[in-house]
Amino acid sequence: MKKVDVNGIQLAYDRRGKGAPLVLLHGYPLDHHLWDEIAPLLEDTFDLILPDLRGFGESSTVDSFYAMEDFASDIAGLLDQLSIQKTAIAGHSMGGYVALAFARLFPERVRGLGLVASQAAADSPERKDGRYKSAAEVADKGISSVVETMAPKFTADKKLQAFARKSMERQQPAAYIGALKAMAERVDSTPFLSSFRFPVVLIHGDADQLIPIDRAREVKAILPQAYFAEIGGAGHMPMMEDKQKTAGALKHLA
2-253, what's its fold? Predict the structure, then answer.
């Protein structure tokens, strides 16, 4: 992977394919390898930019608190160094929160937005409290309990559960803690949706245990022009559970 210095960290990224730029952002607590299986289906359409978000994969992090806006600023800094002024950007789960923050902060740089197994709403007070408790548990006991609890919720597919577990296990505790707090404090992006003047693609499995498909349907109700791919039987990893349908939906951002 290549690395660039942005905002006091080293941000790692992979780049492949040809065509219009598309940034693909992984979810929590994974890294850019989430997109490995679907990337070959997109390489003939897009110049794919696949970063490891700060703290995850091969990217470094900082000890101080950071927010979704900082993740988004990292991506803007990466694009600056790649001389890419405008791009489509799609994010999985937490990556969708980062993509939404990027769209709010840099709307002039967005050619299209994709939300994959994600949502626009902020955390409920209960969910926010749960994230802080998880962060404290990771700080005290490490990541093992989060891995064991979360991995089966990604998907019903045992092989993909093993992929998720392996990916989660190679992440650093600091990445978990930083991301959990950033997710807990993220703003509600719902009020901003109607201001978007670019194509929006929604991709969601109807068996998602982590973010219910109703969250995507809420976005679709606000943005009726959005392309919505409801993937039957898929859980929280549609880019691996139904590669063809997910890739076909993302191509609406070309």
Answer: Rossmann fold (3.40.50)
